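step: validate -> pass
step: tokenize input -> pass
step: predict -> running
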Amino acid sequence: MENQIQTEKKNAYGKIFFQWEFQEVPNYKRGLVWYFIVGLVLVLLLGYSVFTRNFLFGVILLLFAFLFFLMNRNIKTLEVKIAEDGVLIGRKLYSYSDIEKFWIIYNPPEIKSLYFHVRHSLIPIILIPLEKQNPTELRKILLQYIQEDLEQKDEPPFDTFSRIFKL
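step: predict -> pass
step: emit ->
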């Protein structure tokens, strides 16, 4: 029965070239020192907001902290499929005509990422961790359908910041 379901899914999007799972948000290993430093910075910034009577800044800090911990508690695992009809991420299919370009930043073990620039989207840049996928083989398949952005050599600054500070 399971094999039939797999076959039906493959037929819905054409031939599937690559398929893997990744976590929606990177699950960084944060130690006690990390939590202490972040807590100290938060307390200092809250003290600054009270000292300068900028209570809106304090409320924003508390909301950010609440959302950060809430978001990291409920991390979803998404499945990505590179298929003939497009790229399926979770339940959302991005057809190749909607994807303007792609690029791969591969500097293991820290950085193994596939990026898509999507047309007509609220979030134009989509980051997909490559996990254990072969970037050379993946690139060969994607080049058949979409253009590669060869100017992109480094990960975006926000991704670097998030990785370094484990956010």
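step: describe -> The chain is about 40% helix and 30% strand.
step: cleanup -> pass
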